[in-house]
Write a structure and sequence with these properties.
The chain is built from one helix and seven strands. With about 90 residues, it is mainly beta.
Length: about 90
């Protein structure tokens, strides 16, 4: 599933959707991570999750030792291909 990722002044936003089954936005703003899910199969409630004390640097550090596992197929209709990371 393709994402867009925009970063400015230490804040960032990753967006997936709206044309896909899964649609969400992850936003890092003033050292707080917000996740807002608009659409997720089987999920009826869509509260905004808030994780304070999380910066773009923390995200980069989390991926620093991550390795790409490779492409994965989400077996839904239609099938979707995503890049899978493991750390």
């Amino acid at each position: 599933m393709p994402f867009t990722w925009e970063v400015r002044d230490g804040d960032g936003q990753m967006t997936a959707g709206p044309q896909y089954t899964i649609c969400f936005t992850d936003l890092i703003y003033r050292r707080t991570l917000y996740t807002l899910t608009y659409n997720w199969p089987g999920l009826d409630e869509h509260p905004c999750s808030r994780i304070p004390g999380f910066s773009l640097g923390d995200l980069n550090q989390g991926f620093e030792n991550a390795r790409s596992v490779g492409r994965e197929t989400l077996r839904r209709t239609p099938q979707r291909h995503v890049n899978h990371w493991n750390h």
